[in-house]
Write a structure and sequence with these properties.
single chain, five-stranded mixed sheet, four-stranded antiparallel sheet, 188 residues, alpha+beta
């Protein structure tokens, strides 16, 4: 069977505001001096997904969880929103439903309807090898871990709506380690 592939790339961005901005907004910007923010880009089949905000928490919490998603009617799939607005509202970014996930014995499936806002994805259906998928998430975790060790508290992850403010890489990893179901702690 030919599977789709998932991978991530991470780029650092210096968050130090300009002198002019620091003078104009000293209380709001002084904590950004010397900070590095990461931008996570998702690659599907070795091609960048062109989307502005990727929620790293969702990949660790919901992309391996296929607990049925219930709203107005039962669904055989769970839903997660890795591509959203940084405020946390998918609708704000023009996405009207999450990506539906089904975890099978050797694969993980995504279903994402274009009419629900996923026109930026090449396909409506992705079928990943579970081993490769977990390896991609493990690599993302280890990249964040490495940057946290390298940059200490000067390394921040934009948590969007989950924290309401930026958090350090160490705080992100601690939260993931404490909150993800033990059976999904694949990076340990």
């Amino acid at each position: 069977m030919i599977y789709d592939t998932l991978s991530f790339s991470v780029t650092k961005k210096d968050m130090t505001p300009s002198e002019e901005t620091m003078l104009a907004y000293p209380d709001d910007t002084k904590y950004l001096k010397g900070k590095q923010l990461i931008k996570i880009t998702v690659q599907l089949n070795a091609k960048d997904v062109n989307w502005n905000y990727v929620d790293p928490y969702t990949f660790f919490f919901k992309s391996l969880d296929d607990t049925p998603y219930w709203e107005t009617k039962p669904s055989p799939y769970s839903a997660f929103e890795p591509f959203t607005c940084s405020c946390g509202s998918g609708g704000c970014a023009g996405i009207w439903d999450g990506i539906h996930v089904k975890v099978r014995g050797h694969s993980i499936e995504w279903r994402a309807k274009k009419e629900y806002g996923y026109k930026f994805l090449e396909k409506n259906y992705y079928n990943f090898s579970k081993t490769q998928y977990i390896e991609a998430l493990t690599n993302l975790y280890k990249t964040i871990q490495k940057l946290s060790l390298e940059l200490g508290d000067n390394f921040i992850v934009d948590p969007g709506h989950h924290e309401g403010s930026m958090t350090t890489g160490h705080q992100f990893l601690e939260f993931i380690n404490n909150e993800v179901k033990p059976e999904n702690n694949f990076w340990k």
